[in-house]
Amino acid sequence: MWVDRVGSIGLCVLLPWCVACGSEPGVKSDAASQDDLDASRDKPDRKNEPVAPQPEPEPECEVPQFTDDSEAQAFEELRGSVVDDAGKAVAGITAQTCGTNLCLQGETDDTGYVLHQRAIALRRPAFKYGDGLRYAQFAFLLPDQPVIDVGEQTTVPLLTGKGGDRLEVGAEMTSRGVTLSIAADAQLSLNLLDFPDEADHVFTAYEMPRAVWPDAVADQYDLERVVALGPLKTEICPPAEVRLPNSEGWEPDTEVEILLHVTDVAHHWALYGEWGQVADAVVSEDGAEVVTIDGTGVGQLGVIGLRRSSGR
Length: 312
Hints:
By secondary structure, the chain is mainly beta. The protein has 1 helix and 20 strands. β1, α1 and β2 form a beta-alpha-beta unit.
């Protein structure tokens, strides 16, 4: 169970003592009759009766939540296109101009093109595209101007066909060299609202080549790798271990930070459209993998970024 880390609320319930015949708490009344004593002797002894097992409490994981104080900005028009990492137009995927107050819905056409036109005030608007299942989802924060041409934005394919390692607790799932390990006592929450089809509940991963990173991968985060994980908004508590190939050739024991790209307007993990750190990792002793450190991990699937911790 994920809980928002926005403060704590204490709830205290007082159970008053029930005092019989003027007795004080913890003190037996002398008014007990011989009949009461005889009746108590006739009660069956239940000390040796089997006790029904109690359900294990659900794990709880804190989710940092952020508050946005940005003001609405005037919007009139957005145009642009979406391509994959090979430069091919991506047709028929979700493409929105979406603020935290309102979203203009749409899809790319057969050429990957999208056009939104409406005079409206949007708070923290972003060009949000990709569904997080077939293609990775990004949210590119828009400049404060009414007419915007976002140019060509890139995504990567995730679920290219049916099949793959089914998401389940107590198991390891691998996709394109990336391994997700979910503990046996974890709580797995699938994104059934967007992906109700059971065939879509499989782990997917795809590392995005640096040469085609979209504008949503801002320079301010000093990211060195970007990897899309899906299905989007799958939640895992406690967070899952992630192992990735050390494709950059970082030295063994190099400390690494893992950030999540936030495309949800609820501002969990970071503000909408930004990146927030969710885990620490380290390069394995043999230099083969980057592995999340015990006690941390990825609690929600989406696009993640990696950067070395040194010098930060």
